[in-house]
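DEPOSITED CHAIN:
***
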Amino acid sequence: MTEELEKYILGHSDEEGEYLYRLYRATNVHLLHGRMASGHLQGRLLKMLVRMIRPKNILEVGTFSGYSAICMAEGLEKDGHLYTFEINDEQEDFTRPWIEGSAVADRITFIIGDAITEAPRLGLTFDMVFIDGDKRTYTETYEMALQVVRNGGFILADNTLWDGHVVDNAYDKDSQTQGIRRFNDMLKNDDRVEKVIVPLRDGLTIIRKK
């Protein structure tokens, strides 16, 4: 992906909007690893997928700055709701004001805690799950997601190419790379689901529970 081609793609896709533009800039200025935020292209894709799937309940694992949560909430119908979990409590002071200041704040519940243990306690069935948390526990997060997503529902897993590290032997001892590889290998042989890896940004796996 060249810079020129990326500019063309963004120029021919829906705009992200002024609020999300400011959030993305603030994320990169004030937070470490700001590129972890979904950004313009993936954000518009997430919104479009929500429009297509038409979920009533969405679960997000890994809020970070709130960019992806806002994008998905934009795609929800009026009776839809998104529950987003962030395990890092130090993230709350930055993220909560941005979520609460957004036009879709009433469709988002932001929770500080471990989604693996806390999400099932909500007692909800989800139509869509977006996994973008700790790469070392992707497999455990996925197994939790399968428990709470409806039959025919969708799970999206972000960063499944991990900057190409999944095929780079130099990262064999990196725990996050190991976590992504373990997840990808397990998912390949999981006949409970259908799946495809989309090489968008850092890799997005789209999974449908049979």
